[in-house]
Write a sequence for this structure.
């Protein structure tokens, strides 16, 4: 049979997801980086909006999964003080890429919306 899913295994998953959240945050940053935005048509920018929303959702989901797994590890039995402290630390550390991914993703989506409407000459101010 397989090994039981205890607090230590959950902590390994949480730390792994924490390292992957750095990559997902970089993916969100890369999706919002526009070299020369006025060279593209409004149709391109309208098609970019859902892509950037999906990338933002994935980029935010990885640190959120790390926080949830760390929290589950903290409350898993048998409870150990070192794992509770380390789980809290991992959850707080995962909050940083969560907020950064949220901010960068929101900026990327807003940028695509701006260029989709500005190119048509009817951007609401």
């Amino acid at each position: 049979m397989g090994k039981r899913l205890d607090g230590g295994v959950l902590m390994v998953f949480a730390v792994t997801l924490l390292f992957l959240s750095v990559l997902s945050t970089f993916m969100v940053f890369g999706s919002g980086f526009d070299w020369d935005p006025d060279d593209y048509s409004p149709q391109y920018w309208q098609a970019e909006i859902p892509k950037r929303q999906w990338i933002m959702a994935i980029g935010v989901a990885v640190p959120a999964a790390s926080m949830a797994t760390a929290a589950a590890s903290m409350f898993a039995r048998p409870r150990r003080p070192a794992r509770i402290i380390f789980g809290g630390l991992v959850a707080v550390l995962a909050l940083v890429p969560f907020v950064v991914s949220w901010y960068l993703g929101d900026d990327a989506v807003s940028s695509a919306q701006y260029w989709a409407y500005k190119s048509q000459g009817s951007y609401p101010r």
Remarks:
- The radius of gyration is 19 Å.
- The chain has a mean pLDDT of 90.
